Amino acid sequence: MARPSATRAREPRRSASRGSPFGESWITDDQLNPYELRSGRPPATDGEVVIDQHSADLADLVLGEEIEVLTKVGPATFTISGIAGFASGDSAGGASAVLFTQYDAQTYVSSPGKIDSVLVRGADGISQEGLAAAIERELPTETEVLTGAEITKETQDDIKSDMAFFSTFLLVFAAIALFVGAFIIFNTFSIIVTQRQREMALLRAIGASSKQVILSVLVEAAVVGALASAVGRAT
User: Fold this and answer.
1) CA dist 78 to 28, 57, 106, Å?
2) pLDDT score of 36 more than 80
3) How many whole angstroms separate alpha carbon 224 and alpha carbon 112?
4) pLDDT score for 50
5) Cα–Cα dist 144/172, whole Å
6) Exposure pattern of 82-100 as b/e (b: 16+ CB <10 Å)?
7) How many helices (H) and strands (E) does the chain have?
8) Exposure string for 108-140, b = 16+ CB within 10 A, e = fewer
9) Which helix (H) or strand (E) holds 66?
10) How far apart are the first and last CA of the chain?
11) Phi, psi of 120 (to 5 degrees)
């Protein structure tokens, strides 16, 4: 029905930070590999890696160059055998990617002898659900089997969860900025009104009502606020 098409060993962590580096093994099946080679070739022997196009451009890295990679077991030197990207861009959201041979991925970013996931491609006419069910029957109960659609949804949920925290973080700062802005505006107009008490007293003396004086202050505040907003939007 199907055969294992590729195995993947990858760093068992996830970061909400945009541009965070990560490492994983190069997937040998072109139909399952999300990366596409822009130049060079896949890592053929241990000590070779493929890096993303975005990182290569930023650091002026070229094929055959040696780079030092900070791994879970410490710094290690690798030779760039290829540079890859995606159909939609040069990197995964700006993240720096280092793609190893399976052995190096297990040694430097996962655990020796450990496989974190196995990617399977079914024969023509086999549905994702049917393939997943058939594989699940052959594996221990503690093994998780997911279809491509389920993995996509899980990834989207993780991103939404990360973005929810980031959005809350931004909203807190927006609330602080709003409070500080309101405090400054209140103090500014309080000082202005205090400085113009004589002028307001004179207006009252020549017959202006309290309502008219208050209205004039509010109109002045509205005009100043509108002009300041216009200048702020223009700049």
Assistant:
1) 19, 18, 15
2) yes
3) 68
4) 95
5) 38
6) bbbbeeeebbbeebbbbbb
7) 6, 8
8) bbbeeeebbeebbebeeeeeeeebbeebeeeee
9) strand 66-71
10) 63
11) -125, 135
Write the DSSP symbol of residue 196: T
Whole-prediction pTM: 0.57
Check: CB of residue 27 under 8 Å from CB of residue 33: yes
In this predicted model, what pLDDT tens digit does every residue of 118-148 receive, in sequence order? 888 888 888 888 888 888 888 888 888 888 7
- The token pair that represents 33 in the structure block: 């590999």
- The Cα–Cα gap between 120 and 43 comes to 21
CA distances from 175 to 50, 79, 85, 168, 188 (A): 44, 49, 39, 10, 20
C-alpha 24/C-alpha 71 separation (Å) is: 11
- Distance (Å, whole) CA 212 – CA 208: 6
Helix (H) or strand (E) holding 51: strand 48-52
β-pairing verdict for 97-100 and 22-25: parallel
In this prediction, residues 83-90 reach a mean pLDDT of 83
| 84-87: long-range contacts, CB 8 A cutoff, minimum separation 24 | 84/35, 84/36, 84/37, 84/38, 84/50, 84/51, 84/52, 84/53, 85/35, 85/36, 85/38, 85/52, 85/53, 85/54, 86/34, 86/35, 86/36, 87/36
Residues 37, 143: contact at Cβ < 8 Å? Answer: no
Q: How far out from the chain centre does Cα 227 lie?
A: 37
Query: What is the token pair recorded at 90?
Result: 């040069």
Q: Mutual orientation of helices 210-234 and 197-205 as an angle, nearest 10°? A: 140
